[in-house]
From TrEMBL:
GO terms for molecular function: nucleic acid binding; RNA-DNA hybrid ribonuclease activity. Signal peptide: none annotated. This is RNase H type-1 domain-containing protein. Gene3D superfamilies: Ribonuclease H-like superfamily/Ribonuclease H. It comes from the Eukaryota.
Amino acid sequence: MASSTCALPVTLPIRTKRVVSTGEKGNIGSSRGRIIRLATVFHPQNDRLSPEAHFPVSRVQRASGPRLVNRFNRCEMMLVIAGSCLRNGGYAPVGGCAFVFGGGDDDDDDDDDAGRDRDESRKTDGHAVGVGAVAFRLESRDADPPSSPEDTCNRAKLSAAIAALRIRDWAGEGWRRVVVVTDLEYLAKGATEWLPNWVRSNWRKPPGAKPGKKGGRDDERRCYLNRDLWEELQARIEELMAAGCEVSFWQVNGEEYDRNDQGVLARAKRAAQTAMRGS
């Protein structure tokens, strides 16, 4: 077991963007000249290693259970997220979400994390699927279902990222950086690059841009999608950064999730698909 203690850096390297927007009160863009603290892009120390080889399952004394720890920097850990959607873009779509942050035997009830995962997974209305993994069905949290956004693959993966960042106090565990692994460019680029432009435009697409999905109100179709989830994700990113824990995104090819059937990426994908089907 590694016993590294990660001291806070003198300054946390954070990219910021000042945006000018007049959005609704209480949301991102609610004040003129707001500073958005962007997540960063993760650049692997060895790009020949798979995510699982770069962040093998390890134990550190400051964490209650095994984590996916950077073999080159014991102060960094990985969160693998996955999302699926049955009938994506069609009638009555149903989404499933999952994330993996550790590892171990699925029936290892003696591990402190096993019990904590069962308890804390309730934060997402989900359930623990082995040690260091949680899956949940993507359910609308809107009190008025007809006005709720439909489930999509994008919303499933955004929701998985939010839940993964929230299930533990990662800064409190002593991590200086958490790396979110995803195969979705929309998520990786949105969190590290595109968000300030969306906020600056008050979430409205520029004239001439392709409208969104048919069926919604015209004004909704001309807005960037999933604002509710983006604001929730950004709020959590900034909370962690304020506590000294950098959030980075590592976009991988979708084939990485199928390359190793016993690996953590495949585990996350299977869990999301199972949650989607409700079994």
